[in-house]
Amino acid sequence: MDPNALIILYDIPSTLPNQSWSPNTWKIRYALNIKRLPYKTCWLRHHEIEPEMRRIGAQPTTHFFSGTKRYTLPAIFCPRTQTAVSDSSTIIFHIENHYPETRSLFPLGTRALQHAFVETRVVSLERVIFPLIVLRNSEILLAESQSEWRARRESWLGKRLEDVAPPGAKRDAALAAVLKNLEGIDECMRENRETTIFLTGGTPIYCDVALAAALTWMWLVLGEDSPEWGAVMGANKGRWRALIDAFKHWENLDY
Ligand SMILES: N[C@@H](CCC(=O)N[C@@H](CS)C(=O)NCC(=O)O)C(=O)O
């Protein structure tokens, strides 16, 4: 085993300047960057995901929106255990367990609670962001991935992507759902009484990573100057702006 081998992070490319856009792969990218764990990105176009995951022995997971069993990213190949690991939560616990010398995202006793928060609160946030950005998301993918990606989402949603949240009442309602969801998370965070950027104070925990990743997806896909992103930035006394600003330290692509 090569002790200097890097973790490989599998991610989905796009036409965005830094390519990375997926909320789930951002969870792992942010986590690896915070932990200062060296890694290298392997970009897989949609049709390459399943064959490569089978080749390295990664398990299928539950797709975050459709709930169907699929080969999804993120996945990593871990040089320490010589294993492929898929599913963002499984990967997070894997790197916590196998790289104990790195900065932990799980203060003692918080694993179960954080897992519950991410799989409920953050996954529901992703699910309300999805309709708002799905059309634009299809457009930022590489040309060869767009039609299959679109067809699958249209079959899950039962309509053309153009009809999911077109400008007007439907788009306003989709944005209102995102803001309501964020308001619910803000309400929980206000129980901390002191105003902190992160859930438990001065350093990010996994819940912060997952929240930042979901919001990063929205701003990367819709763009910093979009009215929807402007609404999020202005919501909840600037809490989300402060979070995203803080995560700018950890947005590098390969460490
Ligand atoms: N439960 C998985 C869900 C990951 C997921 O749904 N990933 C999407 C990208 S955000 C994916 O790989 N999609 C592949 C496809 O649609 O073919 C996790 O938490 O990692």
Can you offer a commentary on this structure?
With 255 residues, the protein is an alpha+beta fold. It has two domains: 7-98, Glutaredoxin (3-Layer(aba) Sandwich); 111-250, Glutathione S-transferase Yfyf (Class Pi), Chain A, domain 2 (Up-down Bundle). Helices cover 53% and strands 9% of the residues. It has nine helices and six strands. The protein has helices spanning 23-34, 46-56, 88-98, 111-140, 143-157, 169-190, 206-222, 227-234, 239-247; strands spanning 7-11, 39-43, 61-62, 69-70, 75-78, 83-86. A four-stranded mixed sheet has the order 2-1-5-6, covered by helices on one side. Strand 1, helix 1 (23-34) and strand 2 (39-43) form a beta-alpha-beta unit. Helix 4 runs antiparallel to helix 6, helix 4 packs parallel to helix 7 (206-222) and helix 7 crosses helix 9. It is globular. The chain starts with 6 loop residues before the first strand and ends in an 8-residue tail after the last helix. It binds glutathione.
